[in-house]
Amino acid sequence: MHLIVAASNIKGFGSPPRFLLNASLVIRLFSSNSDILSDQQKSLTVSYLINSCGLSPEAANVASKKVNLKSPEKTDLLLALLRHHGFTDADITKMVTKLPSILVAHPEKTVLPKLQFFRSVGMPAHVLAHMTSRSPAILRCSLENRIIPFYDYVKNLLQNNEKVITVFKCVAAHISHMALQQLLANVAILKKYGVNESNILYLTVYHPESLMMRSDKLLKLVDRVTELGIDASKLTFSHAIIVLHRTSKSAWEARKRAYHKWGWSESDIHMAFLIHPPCMSLSEKKIMSIMEFCVNEMDCEAKSIARRPTVLLYSLEKRIMPRCRVIKLLMVKGLIGGPYNLLSLLAMTDKTFSERFITKYDNIPRLLDVYYGKLSLQDLGIDSSELAEVKLV
Fold this sequence. Notes:
Mitochondrial transcription termination factor, mTERF, elongated, nucleic acid binding, mainly alpha, transcription termination, transit peptide, single chain
């Protein structure tokens, strides 16, 4: 092309020579054929993504911009390998949607060793499929430099293979990065602040994401929990770290407003958080519905719940309503004394509650109907003044 431009600018040339025009034609034809081949290749990729991987046409079009399937035979081998290891069509669709380039990974050299390793350490096939379909990058990172060192450290820390598998399920997306270095750095930070080993183990098993965050963020969380007055040696410290890590500032403020509506002061909210941090992880809807039932229907004092915030974590329909109504009925009839401790009532196992308050009083008409929510106390002719005289605290 440069020859054409140069020749056309030389004095005496009225128009480019024929051989240069032919060269230009060849270049245009080559470029045109290249575009056609590219379009054909994309079309084949989109078709494969739809027919073999289960993607929708829209998703396949997006994925085709990130992967170019030059060898369908090799990709067929990869899909066969995944299915052999328990991957369902839905697992494969999710995996390819998240990471289209997984389709060009070498089946035997890249993917198979990871699948074999996870199965060798006891990870069930369905767990492996679920984990890698959500975090397929783990199948492309180094087994020797990433996966095995992380596994060895966590196994040494927890001394329990089932718990190690639980950790992997949670942090698989991080393994392809600097997961072990981040974990080591954050464990060191917690130890520096006096967090005991049992708390560190709890965080590792039940919220490993907190140990995968940037160390400067973890430091801020630890400082905040410490400033709130929570002892680093107590399990409550780990609970507080988890709640604060998961809760945005706007969600925190919304939950505070919900408690304020029931007369809780700032000190009440602070006290409740110190006692049981998960009370600040509840939705405003759940807070309002439980408080409304306990205060308006069961005549509990709203502030007393701040001293027993664990109450708020139970299911309203499955535990709080049935048990409270049964206890109120028995108290109204003078069969048990009061006031009755609400938290003790809800903390009982189903078996213990049934033995103490259902089976023992099975001669009370309609007791089971009240327990199963088929009848309200008002349906039995008990008015609000009678209910107000018996207290749950």
